[in-house]
Amino acid sequence: MFLSVLIVSSVSFLVAFITTRLLASLMKSIRHVGIDVHKPEKPEIPTSCGTAIVVGVVVGSIIALHLFPDYKYHIIAFMLTVILTLLIGLVDDFIVLKGLVKAGLSFLSFIPIASLVLLKPEVFTFGRPEVPIIGRLRLTITYWLLLPLIIAGPANAVNMLDVLNGVMPLTTAIVTLSLLISSLILGRKIGIILSVILLLAILGYLPYNIYPAKVFSGDSGSLSVGAAIGAIALLAKLEIVALVALFPHIMNAFYVITFVKGLKEHREFPRPTRVKEDGIIVDSRNPKAPITLVRLIAGAEGAKEPDIVKCILILQVVAFILAILTTLLIPR
Question: 12, 130, 182, 289: which could form a disulfide with 60 (CB 3.0–4.6 Å)?
Fold first, then answer.
């Protein structure tokens, strides 16, 4: 298995790395760019390049279909979930959907896994999430109501925190690593396969997005990575672990949603932070701007972008440790 995992991970990394460079050139040539608002000079950066992560995941998954035939239905459901979310993200990147519409469409990303349960119940069933100490719960009917949220929740939460250079790939790489380690501890082979594919695709993209960013992920990238994390959590039965690992993203999403009283497009509200001439990011002090994790960290005194990113990463590492501890408390 080690050699097979090494092959799919290497493919995912290389494809994502090469595709990011190609997409950056393409997006720049068609003037599909975003403004890096956290830089005083406001540079234009090619966006929607997070699509490269999905390309890496899809190619890696296709290789995995041949190397791990026993899990072909799981891999297909995972791959279709990510592709469907990518399409939703691309529509939003180029057309700009209303926040509620985007969130509503992202709920449709649960269809591939729901189809797997309905069409191949002998291969995969859910409704028995595992929690620390207690073990398996029986939520057969309730789980169907929660299913769309398990995919759309991480997708939108990851998207909401993708506001600074490197934050999305760095935090989601740590989240995915927690799913990988948890899968190793609990012996979830499908979790190992899918986590490695996603993790290496993210790492292939990371060098281009880390500060100072040469590319932006776009909703196509951040929504897809979040959905991929939710899909892995479902297919490997690591829902509680993923919930803990995503704590910084969930905390940020909670702040935003409660402040704006719903799911709304961020362009409808004033920016929560502003950038001084020396590059220091400070609280905008605008009472109509939403509360965000970045705004709370920056505060009135402010901080430079890399320093804020470091603070978010510290929170993510704490969530990672708690996720692993949660795994160790799950009965085996």
Answer: 12
